[in-house]
């Protein structure tokens, strides 16, 4: 009977150690899973922030290109106006010269 009690006590102690080891393994697995989720969420947040930053850069680029295009169109319009004014002045001078020649 003593051997049986010792055997049962040993198996009970072994079962307790086994349960403790299994509980520790489960705890480690939960921590690892939690860490994995945290890393996944951090990665998703980083990706969202990157995409938002890229979208903002794209908006800024479009705004800059729009402003630059407007500036170029204004410069072209000003140059066209100058050419038209110079042509008008040259026509006026040519007409005045023509009148002087006719009057002479």
The total of helices stands at 1
Uncertain parts: none
Q: Quickly give the structural class.
A: mainly alpha
From the structure provided, what is the oligomeric state, counting identical versus distinct chains? single chain
Q: What is the end-to-end distance? A: 152 Å
Helix content: over 70%
Short description:
The protein has 104 residues and is mainly alpha-helical. It is built from 1 helix and no strands. The chain has one helix spanning 2-103.
Molecular structure report:
With 104 residues, the protein is mainly α. Helix content is 98%, strand content 0%. It has 1 helix and no strands. The protein has one helix spanning 2-103. The longest helix has 102 residues, at 2-103. The radius of gyration is 44 Å and the shape is rod-shaped. It starts with a helix and ends with a helix. The relative contact order is 0.03. The model has no long low-confidence stretch (mean pLDDT 95).
What would the keywords be for this entry?
mainly alpha; 1 helix
SSE blueprint:
Blueprint: H1 2-103
